[in-house]
Amino acid sequence: MKKALFISHQPVFPVIGGDNVRMSQSLRLLAEICDVDVAYLSKTDDAPHFKDYVPEIKGEYRFVAGPIRRYGRILRTIVNRNAEVVNHFRSGDLMKWVKRNASRYDFVFCASPVMGQYALESDFKRKIIDMTDCLTMNFERTAESRHGLMRRLFIEEARRMEKYEKRCIMNFDALAYIASADRDYLAGGNKFIVGNAVREIPENERNHHGTESRRLVFVGKMDYAPNILAVNFFAREVMPLVLREYPDAEFLIVGTKPTGAVENLGNLPGVTVTGRVPEVGPYFSGASVVVAPMLSGSGVQNKILEALAYGARVVTTPTGAEGIESLEDVMTVVEPEPGLWAEQVVAMLRDPSYMREPAALAPRRLSEEFGIAKVRKEFRRFVGIVTGSD
Hints:
The chain has 16 helices and 13 strands. With about 400 residues, the chain is an alpha/beta fold. The chain has two domains: about 210 residues, Glycogen Phosphorylase B (Rossmann fold), CATH 3.40.50; about 170 residues, Glycogen Phosphorylase B (Rossmann fold, 3-Layer(aba) Sandwich). The protein has a seven-stranded parallel sheet, with helices on both faces. Helix 6 links the parallel strand 4 and strand 5. The longest helix has 24 residues.
């Protein structure tokens, strides 16, 4: 079997958030076809070990870089003109180890865009990278929704990220993306689409729309800029319009690491910020409507796929539907205008049967479009560039 090095910008387990969903999937699929060592950055030395979750891993190498050291690296951005997010995940210790051990491996698998820097500066025989999203597109879209200094900062970060991503495109044997919009945003490269597999939810755990509550739910990591923008839009601009029709309606913001700005939304009428919860499943299964009013961001929204797997009624924006347009028959896509959103949500609260049948079909449609068999085939085609098989 080929010997691969899998490098990650953070511990993958336990799986919390879309990036860990993606990386854990890649690691498990890679371990099916290769002997895999993992090397990764961690903020602490007590994070769960990868081998506890994927016993097939051969070697595990952890490099601790606490918050003070990480944020100190941001100062490099002023000097080296690299993207801030790339500098944030640069570790001298990990870089030295990777350079010293590169020759031991048949290829390196960079599990996120920011880890490409370690392969670019090391002498690997072959190298592949999971870009997942196009970060240049993400930053450019975020800049469009900001003003003043923040707008200028995101424009500059997008410019630097474009330079970095183009370097990856030119130097990696193959690059994987989650959606065609991300793949095609920057030209060139040997690019592949690899989806995220969605697990099947047992029938008895699904959303059957039998509740009489008026519960609107958003799920996501709440320190992620596009999620923060989305919940602010809904809580401040849409929710007041919904409350005029249904004063007992509630909007639940469910997700780990809520920023201060997100926590403040809990002071608004009808809005609750839960923070991290043990399981998000009950929120998907108990929601009257799952809302994903994405105004920025890139890639596929795992929160939407997971909600559809539960058979929930989902409302999103055209941005939220990118990469999963084939599923628009089982969800509702609305332009990001407060009045239109309130009208759609109120219609669903008024009539529990509205969009119930398409939502009930969603789990089967997900199995067809994002089942593990299809994703495994996509992944092996991508990795086959360096293994010589698919």
